[in-house]
């Protein structure tokens, strides 16, 4: 089995494995997923390969995912301190309480207390704001998150599914106030979803944030299984199955065939090679799926294949990034840039 290496999370000294185990599939409360025994087996295999970074959320399987992880720590008598456990707050988990959702301080404190009980632990290693609510002031969020760190209930903080300007404002405000800053950014990112390259990834690089892509295999579309007739759980009208996505997937399959590896290895290698602080989140409901994903770490795509994949999946970067490229700003050609401005004026 491939043994994982470690990297530092963001600008912190926290050492995390080069793949993060996504546990949204732990539990069967939503009618699908891994049962308790299968979930324990996946955790075991992940740890045996050197994996220590585990991702969950208060809302996953109505809390069952967190509860399974808590039972794993208790029943298997594993070293809790070996694992870097990440969970999230924000999404609604209670229909009777108007403050049982959102980014506000009240929901944050309530959610963390619930997560600590389900996870059967005294602390959360990494706490994410799950999704931006466009209501709560970011100043309120940063102060509340810092309070949790000072209380010893949370070690590090991160943010997910949020506009780049909000993340930037939050980290800048925290730096000004001497509070804890975000160490990581979680976004959907894959060969079929490259729009984070417009604002989110440049912002993450500027602040030294680790990037944790969710759905790096695009819900399994990039494995090619849907092209082979596997109905799976993806909707037929999904953008992951449109003509452009199918063509990109075929490129992945062709390159995988040349290397003699699963298509998932090529898709994950592409994501990892986009940014040196990138840690893909790989979900699994079977240990065989996890082992295949871990095997991707042995693959390093040659520049020619990276170029093929980039060309097949390229997106419109929009203004101002495309304007910068045309003007030569990325090559430090500022003379050409100003010449063009003069001509346009």
Automatic annotation (TrEMBL):
Pfam families: Aldo_ket_red. One of its GO terms (molecular function) is oxidoreductase activity. GO terms for cellular component: cytosol. InterPro entries: AKR_Detox_Biosynth, NAD(P)_OxRdtase_dom_sf, NADP_OxRdtase_dom. It comes from the Bacteria. Residues 18-312 form the NADP-dependent oxidoreductase domain. The keyword Transmembrane does not apply. Keywords: Oxidoreductase. PANTHER family: NAD(P)-LINKED OXIDOREDUCTASE SUPERFAMILY PROTEIN, NADH-SPECIFIC METHYLGLYOXAL REDUCTASE-RELATED. This is Predicted oxidoreductase. It comes from Arachidicoccus rhizosphaerae. The lineage of its organism: Bacteria, Pseudomonadati, Bacteroidota, Chitinophagia, Chitinophagales.
């Amino acid at each position: 089995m491939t043994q994982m290496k470690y990297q530092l999370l963001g600008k912190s000294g926290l050492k995390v494995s080069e793949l993060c185990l996504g546990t949204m599939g732990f539990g069967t409360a939503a009618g699908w997923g891994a049962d308790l025994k299968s979930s324990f087996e996946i955790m075991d295999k992940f740890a045996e390969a050197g994996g220590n970074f585990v991702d969950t959320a208060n809302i996953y399987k109505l809390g069952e995912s967190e509860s399974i992880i808590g039972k794993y720590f208790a029943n298997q008598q594993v070293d809790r301190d070996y694992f870097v456990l990440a969970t999230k707050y924000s999404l609604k988990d209670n229909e009777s309480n108007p403050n049982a959702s959102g980014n506000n301080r009240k929901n944050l404190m309530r959610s963390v207390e619930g997560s600590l009980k389900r996870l059967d632990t005294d602390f959360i290693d990494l706490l994410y704001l799950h999704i931006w609510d466009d209501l709560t002031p970011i100043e309120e969020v940063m102060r509340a998150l810092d309070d949790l760190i000072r209380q010893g209930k949370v070690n590090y903080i991160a943010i997910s599914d949020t506009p780049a300007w909000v993340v930037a404002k939050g980290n800048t405000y925290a730096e000004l106030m001497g509070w804890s800053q975000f160490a990581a950014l979680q976004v959907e990112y894959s060969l079929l979803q490259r729009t984070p390259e417009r604002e989110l990834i440049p912002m993450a690089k500027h602040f030294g944030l680790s990037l944790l892509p969710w759905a790096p295999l695009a819900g399994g579309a990039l494995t090619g299984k849907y092209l082979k007739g596997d109905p799976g759980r993806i909707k037929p009208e999904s953008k992951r199955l449109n003509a452009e996505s199918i063509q990109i997937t075929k490129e992945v399959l062709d390159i995988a065939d040349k290397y003699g590896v699963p298509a998932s290895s090529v898709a994950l290698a592409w994501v990892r090679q986009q940014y040196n602080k990138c840690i893909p989140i790989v979900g699994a409901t079977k240990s065989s799926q996890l082992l295949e994903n871990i095997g991707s770490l042995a693959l390093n795509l040659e520049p020619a294949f990276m170029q093929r994949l980039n060309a097949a999946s390229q997106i419109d970067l929009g203004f101002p990034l495309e304007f910068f490229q045309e003007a030569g700003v990325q090559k430090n050609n500022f003379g050409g840039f100003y010449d063009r401005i003069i001509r346009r004026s």
